[in-house]
Amino acid sequence: MKNLIVSKKYNNKKLSNFLFDNFDGLTNNSFNKALRKKDIRINDVRVSENKTIYEGDEIKVYIVDELLYKKNEVSEINIVYEDENIVVFDKPANIEVTGENSLEKYAQNLYKNQFIKPCHRLDRNTIGLVLFAKNEESLEILLEMFKNQKIEKHYRCVVVGIPKQEQKVLEAYLFKDNKKSMVYISDTQKTGYRKIITSYKIVEKDYENNLATLDVELHTGRTHQIRAHLAYIGYPILGDGKYGVNNINKKFKVKNQKLCSYSLKFNIDDNNKLHYLNNKVIRTKNNICLKYS
After folding, report:
1. Average pLDDT over every residue of 34-38
2. Cα torsion at 193, 197, 201, 203 (round to 10°)?
3. Which domains, and CATH codes, for the chain?
């Protein structure tokens, strides 16, 4: 679900004009189908026709990302680290890790008939390090390591607001709504909610713009965990169209969430095929997430 606020520019304009300008992959067919299915809401009212909208209206769009954005043709993607067992790509924004026209497809084309599989995921608009296994044994080891939190994943992000505490370990519970492609956070355990742990420390403060750069570590790896967890405590990620603040995103002219997976550290205490990676840290030089002006 995408949640947008109508700006002054689109006051007294048609809904279609607003949506076509905001989603470069949306077609007339997809728009009309969404109207027929009442998958678009204006101020929480389902609409079935191309209504006139006004400044301040809230538009909710229940259309999958694949129909909203143009496919980003994958050209050349930087490899940060590679050996005989693993390869780490520096994923750009607007590319899924799996699926059609994805990072996985790119890797399969690059390595032809060799085994190549991703070991974890990043959101479509999150940039940074994605680890792939180059053989089945390595894949099995790495999946088990992620499960047992033996691979430290660090992110950098820019958030709206400056946390009062310099660093903190956050614990909560997350529910994934597959139908809406959204997650929800709760302080208490509920049916269907899974525990999440996210820690952060402040790297930089921008008092003039009321923004902060955080170093975030994932202790559990749930869908949209960082984005939803930080938004839940009042510090949404700049540029996040799903859990963020749209008028602030527009103010800074930011269209993609400022979130980057910048570091992976291996903690291997078993004498397995990948023991040579123990204590190895792999980092990206891509600091685009810190450039918010």
Report:
1. 94
2. -70
3. 2-68 (3.10.290.10), 79-149+267-277 (3.30.2350.10), 156-261 (3.30.2350.10)
